[in-house]
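Record 1 of the preview.
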Amino acid sequence: MSNATQPAPALKRTPLYDQHVALGGRLVEFGGYEMPVQYRSIIEEHQAVRARAGLFDVSHMGEFRIEGPGALDFLQHLVPNDVAKLEISQTLYTQLCLPTGGTIDDCTLYRLADQAYLLVVNASCCQKDWAWVQQQSAGFDLTRLENATDEIALFAFQGPMAEAILQKHSDINLISVPYYHCRSGAIDDIPTLISRTGYTGEDGFELYHDAKDAPKLWNAILEAGRASGVLPIGLGARDTLRLEAGFCLYGHELTEAITPLEAALGWSVKLDKGVDFIGREALARQKEEGLKRKRIGIEMVDRSVPRAGYLLLADGQPVGELTSGTIGPSLNKTIGMGYVPPEYAKIGTPLEVDIRGRKVGAKVVSLPFYKRQK
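->
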């Protein structure tokens, strides 16, 4: 048997790889892709989104087309949220769950037409999600079940100036697109599904379009926003923005061992939707018996930066663990999220964070950490 080390699989690239290189993006591996973590400083990019607008390449996300007479029944079985309530052009946040209630992935679901849906999943989970969706589809009347990830490019254009900048280049009235809704239109004559969704806590849009049009649309939006100070934004600021907004990140706040109920996402679990779904029995039992742990937000009292994996202590004893932690550039505070038993989850509860053997003071605070001015 050979002991030779097998070469690592080549990283994928989005259609904007050349643009990222030209803009000086620092590229890292993320979800199997070569992605920009930053172009300038993470704090500068973060503040650009909060104050003006920023453009993110999130074309690494996965997209599955699910269509046919049995599409609704299939999706009602597949996810815990109530897909039957979706109107055409409406979007839903939900999860894929194991029979144990643990989370395979969190995702967004678009109802595009009467029997046509688009399921958007995380890049790091795309392969396992696709295998799971295919496996669970047996017995349902579907005319199309397609992994369209390589065909679709996706941008996020986020920030208080995003609508005004994009409106000048859009053929639809963006004010008419409510939060968590979408409309088909065009940006600079490029056919685009325009969705009022995002992962930053700011108003803004996610723009789905043909991968071949990605460089043209990217350049057009950056040029349109240049005078207003719009910047391209990397994964680093995407993470600090989503953490300030209290959003879960798969692999951190959500895993196959963590249920949506534990993650404070009970509002997206519809146990009473009238249809059995994967994980329902386990989730109903967990709700009835009471949660053993809850997701919390913490703010450091003493000057230190919390990180994922650091232990949370009460009276000097470990009671939980951080799943995310960083500096909150909009808050001038250091913040984190993690899990503790319910008795330690009350707002104001004093805790400590074990930072490389040093016990540093913290307290439980309400989520989200940041709320935009409306």
